[in-house]
Every structure is written in C-alpha cells, then in structure tokens.
Amino acid sequence: MRRNRNVKIVATLGPASSDHEMIRALFEAGADVFRLNMSHGTHDELRARHALVRRIEKEAGRPIAILADLQGPKLRVGTFGAGAAELDEGEAFRLDLDTAPGDMHRVNLPHPEIFAALEPGVELLVNDGKIRLTVQQCGPDFADCVVTVGGMISDRKGVNVPDVVLPMAALSEKDRRDLEFACELGVDWLALSFVQRPEDVTEARALARGRAAIMAKIEKPAAVKCFDEILAVSDGVMVARGDLGVELPVHAVPPIQKRLVRRARAAAKPVIVATQMLESMIESPMPTRAEVSDVATAIYEGADAVMLSAESAAGAYPVEAVRTMDNVAISVEGDPTWREVINASRRIDHIGIADGIVAAAREIAETTEVKAICCFTESGSTPMKVARERPQVPIIALSPNPATLRRLCLTWGIHCVATGPIDRFKSAVVSAARAARDLNLATEVDQIVVTAGVPFNVPGTTNILRVAPCDERLIYRAEAE
Question: Is the pLDDT of residue 481 over 70?
Fold first, then answer.
C-alpha cells in the first residue's frame, strides 16, 4: 500500500477511534501519523492505542508514526460562588490569589507567575477571548482590570496572556510525567505545547534523551517572534492555529501560517498545519467549502502534513474526515498550479555537500525519465533535504533503523522502506531498485537516482549520487565492468 499524494495526514485518536477496526480503517483511508493527545485519556488508554497502531503497522508491513502531544500548562480562573457571573463592559474586575469563591467583582487566578509578568495596559483573554480584561493596576498577588468585552464567566475558564512572555516553563509536572511515559512507550514524536522561547524546546530535548523527535507547537505570539531560534533547536514544528487565533487577531494568522511553513521547509524540517481544518465533520459527513479550501491552502503552501483533531478523535465521521483530506490532497496535487506554486516557493540555501547532492538529484529527476529518488539514511536528514526540494518524482527513504523510518512518515513525499544492514554501494543500489519496483513506482526498464554515504551507517555522510537501472542484471553487469 502506498499513498498517491505527497502531503501527509495526521489523525488524532480518541473515544471515537480507539479499537483495532476503526484505527485500521483510518490508516486505510489515508492516515500516515496517529496523534495521542496527552490532555485526554489515562495512561492505560493511551498505551492500548499505541499497541493497536503498532499491531496495524506490523499487519500493513510499513512504518507508521505516532505523535504524543503534551498538554502544557493550563492557566485557568478559579470558581464562582454561583458557578458563574456576568461581567459588564466598562466595569472593574479583580483577579487575585484569594481562594474564596468569585463573584461579579473578583475571582481567584491561582497563577502567581502571571501576576509577576503583568503591567498596566496588558490584555487578558478569558474563555478563548470571549471575555477581555485590560490591566489598570497590578501587584504580585492581584490585577485590577477593566472589562473591555463582557459576558458570562464561569468556573475554571482558560486565561490567555498574549502581550507578555510568562516566567514559566513549557513543561508542567504532568507534562514531565507524560513525556517520560510516552518515551518509554516508544512514540516517535513529542509535540511540545506552550512554547515561548528556544529554551523550552531544549529542556524537553534533554528529558527525551533522543528517544523521540521534538516538535514545537507555535501557538503563542512570543513563539512567532523568535520562530527562527525555536526552529533551529526543534526537529519539526506545528502551526497550532487555535491558540494563535485567540492570542492574535484572527486576520493575522493566515500570513503567519504561510511564513512559518516556508521557513520550516527551507530548514528541511517537517511542518504540520493544525486545528479546525474540517471542524464541521465532527457532526456532519460533509465538510464546508471553506474548510476544504483551508486544507487546500495548506497543501498549496507546501506543508508536510495536515492534521485532524476532534474530527477523528471524537467525531461521528472519523473515516470520512480522513478520506476527505486524502481526496483534497490528491485533487490539489493534480493541479498544475500546485506545482507552479511549489516550485516558485523553493528557497536556494545550500550549504554543504549533501545539500548539493539532493539539489542535483531533483534537477536530474526533472530533466530525465528518472522515476524515483532513493535515499539510504541513518538519521533521516538526507531524505528530509530531498523533500525540501519538493521533487516531481517520489522519494524513497531506505534505512535499517525503524525509529528513523517512523519519524520520516511525517515528512512530505517520503515512502519509507526498511532494509537490512548495507555495507556496499552495489547492495544499496540493488535494494533501492527492488524497493522502487515493489512500490510500483518503477519497472525493470526504468531508472532511479540513488544517494548514499560512504562509509555506510554513519549519519551525515551523504556523498554519492548515481543514476541506476531498476534491472538488477544491469546493475551487476555494470559492477563487473
């Protein structure tokens, strides 16, 4: 089984997709990566879903990636004596550390780190921005605000502070426990919430100790401002448009999305576009036209993956949602305009031998009848660099390392194939030819491009490019000559 598209699909597992039959159906409909949302479900439930994905991976005979999404710190108000209160525009309202039940005049905010960062003029958003407060005066244990957008506020509603960098880590104690659990379980990617600075990513990387790749979720204005620094220390990024759309004006999110996707591609690091992509399919078997256009836009921009959240985790039509994304992707990538946009957005920023080799591989593929670019890889860096070029032919990543292949399932255009240990270039070429034929990407009369590094099994040594036939007899004949 292989996909007839380049962009990858991430499907979140949850109550609606927690048994073997449903997860298998999601995979067959087009899911390449399964997301475990650490905000929901017990460790036992998450362990069971992880085991089911690995069982389906074995049944299908191809790698499947698993991404664990850490919850991050949750900032919430306390409780109200009546369960809720009505706040009127222009009225005063206080947030403080007093644990007494709140009313229309005040409520507890049990986060001293927020008060430490506040200053007059800072805006606080409550309940996804439905209520807005502007700080007038503040101290280490209180903030006197004026209500700029009123409404009903109730127990434990979330609070966003978009104007300041909060003096708190991206990892809560729960996140640390979840991170260790996910790494011991054997997930391939860790998505890190509440990232504000590159140090948040390096802390998570130190805790992961190489057991999973680190993906930074870009969901706060502070992360947008220092995106290049965060990208440099991350293995991939997620454009998490939900919180971005709360903490920034909604009209600012589309250009930010486009900019971040291009910069991640230039760095040869996978980027996921996420949140509310097919939201209406939680309850409807058909998406809206606007949602289809939203998914298509991310694909035109060159995103590595598009993601389903509640649509596949808790919705009534999880398989239909995956199938819709698959169909949109195939349609978009069949449009000549898509190729024009993808080529026009390619950034030439080659700095090493491997960069030059993958650029040459793409040029050869575009000017000859080559059917695929085959990369032997230990760490996965070379096929990701080939993917950055967005070639017109399929990319085949071959590796003896299952962890590398699973992580590559998230990257644009890559077909992952497990191989045995390779110690000679001729053996590498033969394995590449067999893989191209087995995937029905080439026949014996076709040619492929093969990249590899000598010595083998050493990360970062890509230094060979060869155009080779898919007929093994011709490979052996050339070797003899």
Answer: no
What does the pLDDT average to over 226-232? 98
297 catalytic, yes or no? Answer: no
Q: What is the pLDDT of residue 389?
A: 95
> Is 466 an annotated catalytic residue?
no
pLDDT at 462: 82
In terms of phi and psi (left: phi > 0; alpha: psi -120 to 50; beta: otherwise), the region of 275 is: left
Among residues 275, 382, 404, 411, the one annotated as catalytic is 275
Look up 275 and say whether it is catalytic: yes
DSSP 445: T
Q: Which helix (H) or strand (E) holds 28?
A: helix 20-29
Catalytic residue among 5, 8, 35, 241: 35
Residues 192 and 214 in one domain: yes
Task: Return the percentage of the chain with pLDDT > 90, whole number.
Answer: 88
pLDDT value of residue 478: 58
Write down the catalytic residue from 217, 385, 388, 390.
217
Q: In this structure, are residues 113 and 166 in contact, taking their beta carbons and an 8 Å threshold?
A: yes
Q: What is the mean pLDDT of residues 339-359?
A: 86
Domain that holds residue 436: 353-480
The CATH number of the domain holding residue 143 is 2.40.33.10
Clarify whether 473 is annotated catalytic: no
CB 460 within 8 A of CB 379: yes
> DSSP secondary structure string, 396-431?
EEEES-HHHHHHHTTSTTEEEEE-----SHHHHHHH
Domain boundary among 109, 142, 160: 160
Q: 247 with 221: CB under 8 angstroms?
A: yes
